[in-house]
Design brief:
The complex is a heterodimer.
Chain A: H1 2-10, H2 24-32, E1 35-41, H3 49-61, E2 68-74, H4 80-83, H5 85-95, E3 100-107, H6 124-140, H7 147-152, H8 158-178, H9 188-193
Parallel strand pairs in A: 1-2, 2-3
Helix pairs in contact in A: 2-3
Chain B: E1 2-6, H1 13-22, E2 28-32, H2 61-70, E3 73-79, H3 87-95, E4 100-107, E5 110-115, E6 121-127, H4 133-150, E7 156-159, H5 165-176
Parallel strand pairs in B: 1-2, 1-3, 3-6, 6-7
Antiparallel strand pairs in B: 4-5
Classes of the chains: A mainly alpha, B alpha/beta.
């Protein structure tokens, strides 16, 4: 949805990362592009393995010369630092492959992977204008500063943090119980070994 | 038990580390992730619902997950790739959600989660020659964030292909330390 939002104003083309098989077609598309925008979810503090594999494959293939690269990483935890490594990873990929790193956008506080527009984001008042400014940088081909997404981070106070910890735990425990499991039982693999 | 999961290149760092650790603690298991059939996480969310605590992807990760669930120390060994880990090791990390604690809690004023095993220590060993300061720092910061989100203790280490035996033994002592 985030890339579609960018494409509506830039006229770019979205290419999806295949979850299996060859990555050669995608690497070729990256080599041919003048501007590349990589968007992905945050798994364990950075991009998922398949996206790392794409970067490794692209780096081995080479053939880059001055393309502009922007990145977006989107995760559940509301803190920028939790997800920031994804952009750092893209920056190293760019620097090691003659690609111009132009900055990125960290979007925490909820994954927008279910097709919802950014206007449904919990921090939309700050996030929507900041993301639109990020898109403007892509249109202009200019470098997007980290301060753009850092300012869009919604700081939760202590009371709200504890409230969300309880609320989210209540929701996941209810979900587990709904499927007939005991959330307090030892992990399934440990039970199998016993 | 100590679990070592490695993306082993020519230097076979994971195997070398397993050998060093085994002299201090015989309860050690070692997996060379780059030689195993481990598929990427499909983000199906089954491990947090329908098959709570269990990954439904039937591949070699089914041998690794029981060891991670039961270990007191997990050591991930990887070449440093773009300031992080290789995709072989990242596949293992992504699939570890199945043995994570689903509950949220507050630590240091922030929301965090944890692992199902109590008190698991978590180590990352990065391998690379001529790594710049920024890339070393990025690798260590990834470990620090992982450690934070897993509510674990542990350290990150960096090695080059000369495999300093002193540092290998230091890592072995650290991961076997109670």
């Amino acid at each position: 949805m985030l890339l579609e939002r960018i494409c509506t104003v830039t006229g770019g083309k979205v290419t999806y990362l295949p979850q299996q098989g060859s990555l050669d077609a995608l690497v070729l598309a990256m080599q041919k592009a003048a501007t590349i925008v990589i968007s992905g979810p945050c798994y364990i503090n950075t991009y998922p393995a398949r996206l790392i594999e794409l970067l490794e494959t692209a780096s081995q293939a080479g053939g880059f010369s001055g393309q502009k690269l922007y990145g977006i990483i989107n995760g559940g935890m509301p803190y920028v630092h939790t997800h920031r490594h994804g952009l750092t990873c893209l920056q190293f990929f760019a620097e090691q492959n003659q690609i111009a790193w132009q900055g990125g956008f960290v979007l925490g506080g909820g994954a927008m992977l279910d097709g919802n527009p950014l206007e449904k984001h919990i921090g939309r008042k700050k996030v929507v204008p900041a993301f639109d400014l990020f898109v403007q940088h892509i249109i202009e081909g200019s470098s997007s500063p980290d301060s753009l997404y850092e300012r869009a981070e919604t700081a939760m106070g202590s009371i709200m943090t504890h409230f969300f910890a309880r609320l989210l735990t209540f929701m996941v425990v209810r979900h587990i119980k709904k499927h007939g499991h005991d959330p307090d039982a030892p992990n399934w693999y440990l039970r199998e070994q016993a | 038990m100590i679990a070592i999961v490695s993306d082993d290149g020519q230097e076979m760092v994971g195997a070398v580390l397993e050998e060093a650790v085994s002299h201090l603690d015989p309860q050690v298991v070692y997996f060379a992730a780059n030689t195993m059939d481990i598929k990427p996480c499909a983000a199906c969310a089954s491990c947090s619902g329908k098959t709570y605590g269990r990954c439904v992807i039937q591949d070699d990760m089914q041998q690794v997950l029981p060891k991670i669930a039961g270990c007191r120390a997990l050591v991930l060994v990887s070449p440093v790739v773009f300031g992080g880990v290789s995709h072989h090791i990242k596949k293992v990390m992504d699939r570890m959600a199945a043995v994570g604690n689903p509950r949220y809690r507050v630590s240091g004023g922030e929301l965090v989660k944890g692992m199902s095993g109590q008190g698991m220590r978590y180590y990352m060993v990065g391998i690379g020659d001529h790594l710049g300061e920024a890339e070393q720092s990025a690798f260590c910061s990834l470990h620090a964030e992982n450690k934070n989100i897993m509510s674990a203790k542990g350290k990150a280490f960096l090695l080059d292909s000369r495999l300093d035996q002193g540092l290998i033994h230091e890592i072995a002592r650290e991961v076997t330390h109670e």
